[in-house]
Amino acid sequence: MRNNHQRHAAPTCARRTLGSFACTLGLAFASSAYAAQEDAKGFIEDSHLNLLNRNFYFYRDLRNGARNNLGANGHKPVSARNGYREEWAQGLMAFYTSGYTQGTVGVGVDAFGMLGVRLDGGGGSTGTSLLPWDGDGHPEREYSKFGGAVKLRFSNTVLKYGQQVPSVPVFASNQVRLLPSTATGFSLVSDEIDGLNLQAGHFTSVTSTDSTNRDGEITTDYTVLPAARAIDYAGGTYRVDERLSFTVYADQLKDIWRQYYGNATYVLPLDAHQSLQFNFNLFDTHDYGASKGGPIDNTAWSLLSGYAFGGHKVSVGYQMIDGDEPFDWVAFEGTQSGALYLGNAGAVVPFSEPNERSWQLRYDLNMAAYGVPGLSFMARYIRGDGMDNSNSRNPYYTRIGQYDEDADSNKEWERNLEVGYVVQSGQAKDLSLRIRQSTHRSSSGTRWPDHDEVRVIIEYPLNVF
To answer: Which helix (DSSP H) or strand (DSSP E) does residue 277 occupy?
Structure first.
């Protein structure tokens, strides 16, 4: 009869042969995989259910003659369309994450359910992307979406298939509306080497923030290029230590473009209360294959540098769009793009027009340094100029409009103000309130209308188990 020690005994590489080194590496990897699964607590035992309540008020006042052309306004004469967008909604999100079954390959599932409810707003003021609207342009009273993914874990590598909330620099879910956007496909995340996170994915459909359509097309932020049938990406992040990290990714939007991304972040401590921080981002985008989106040749980069002292942080940034086409990135069904990994992306405007250069000045204050933990402030000003697409041969982007030939006269700026507070203890612990105000002004020709905007966001997360 075999005892437990015999059952768990690992094989060895008995003789030194030409393949002994590979054998040793293979056994080490297998041992790691076995150990990881030995630590698995079980499918149910290690499961978690998290709830997130989000209350969202959104008001955008369109200035200098701009009109709201969305929702029911689209059925009205231009002169009768409202000059603002305003909606108030309540969102409830539930996220279930199972543990893994024990064994060499662990099996688990992730699932979510989301509900959005209209509290205020009508067809004449819709268009904030908080709520979907019906055929007549009136926002729905409520909408919901459900989804999930099956996951397999071997060692420290996880393969998933199903509806997910992607979060990589070249394909990132939008998290700044009532409900997040999602995507359906495969993802692979590997953490086999300390400090190195590798990821890859293949997704074929998306669901926008304000949609329940699971078969939404993969579009881009500028909303003018043909939809793509799939997006593939691969890359990773290597964290050298707590101060320095590097990230590299590549994505392929089928028959539209190939896009490459690089990032480097570095923190230089000066003493216990001061540090210098640097964040460099680079995107390089080129059309390929059938080039269904027309010719694209664009390089976009940004450098954001900050000086942190006590509870203060002052940052300055510079961003350059080098190309006659704008810098564009993946969107979710055309209504909302994904998160943007460029330093000068404001709350509304990304400063991503053709040949645009922009500067940023930002100030952050954490009141914990003054005895009020949880309270924070942010003020940011971004100014861009030099936009010029006169040499572009892309029929899609130039359809938006042509800039004045005098590039020096093409200018825009955005100002963002934000105050936030997170409850630190008690029954309402982790309840947060954020009030955001933004203002944008520009010369004629930019795709962003002048506006004054206010957002009020209240969130309350709850860990059920």
So the answer is: strand 274-287
Backbone phi and psi for residue 302, each to the nearest 5 degrees, phi listed first:
-145, 150
pLDDT value at position 10? 43
What are residue 23's phi and psi, to 5 degrees? Answer: -60, -45
Domain that holds residue 293: 40-463
- Does residue 254 contact residue 293 with C-beta atoms inside 8 Å? no
Does any domain span residue 259? yes
| pTM (2 d.p.) | 0.89
Tokens of 334: 């055309």
pLDDT at 29: 44
Question: What is the tens place of the pLDDT at every residue in 191-220?
Answer: 999 999 999 999 999 999 998 888 888 999
Residue for token digits 């500067």? 359
Q: How far is CA 443 from CA 62, 369, 412, in A?
A: 15, 41, 6
Domain of residue 434, CATH code: 2.40.160.10
Which of 356, 400, 407 lies closest to 382 in space, CA to CA? 356
Q: What is the pLDDT of residue 459?
A: 98
Least confident range of 258-267, 268-277, 401-410, 435-444? 401-410
- Name, in order, each residue with C-beta under 8 angstroms of 438's C-beta and a sequence gap of 6 or more: 346, 347, 348, 414, 415, 416, 417, 451, 452, 453
Cβ–Cβ contacts within 10 Å for residue 387, how many? 26
The pLDDT assigned to 400 comes to 87
Stated as kind and residue range, the H or E segment containing 34 is: helix 20-38
How far is residue 343's CA from residue 341's CA, in Å, rounded to a whole number? 7
Cβ atoms of 344 and 320 within 8 Å: the answer is no
Residue 295 lies in a domain: yes
The mean predicted confidence, pLDDT, of the chain is 90
In a domain, 13, yes or no: no
Q: What's the burial of 65, exposed, middle or buried (CB within 10 Å: 0-12/13-18/19+)?
A: exposed
Task: Give the residue carrying structure tokens 């010029």.
Answer: 388
Among the listed residues 89, 92, 99, the one whose alpha carbon sits nearest the alpha carbon of residue 50: 92
Cβ(281)–Cβ(329) below 8 Å: no
3-state helix, strand, coil split of the chain in percent (to 5) is: 10, 50, 40
Q: What tokens does 59 get?
A: 């008001």
For residue 45, what are its two tokens? 């035992």
Instruction: Report d(CA 353, CA 293) in Å as an integer.
Output: 17
**Burial zone of 44 (CB within 10 Å; 0-12 exposed, 13-18 middle, 19+ buried):** exposed
How many structural domains compose the chain? 1
Residue 15 counted as domain residue: no
Give which of 286, 287, 239, 234 is closest to 267, Cα–Cα: 239
Q: What would the pLDDT profile of 67-120 be if each residue is shown by its tens digit?
A: 999 999 988 999 889 999 999 999 999 999 999 999 899 999 999 999 999 999
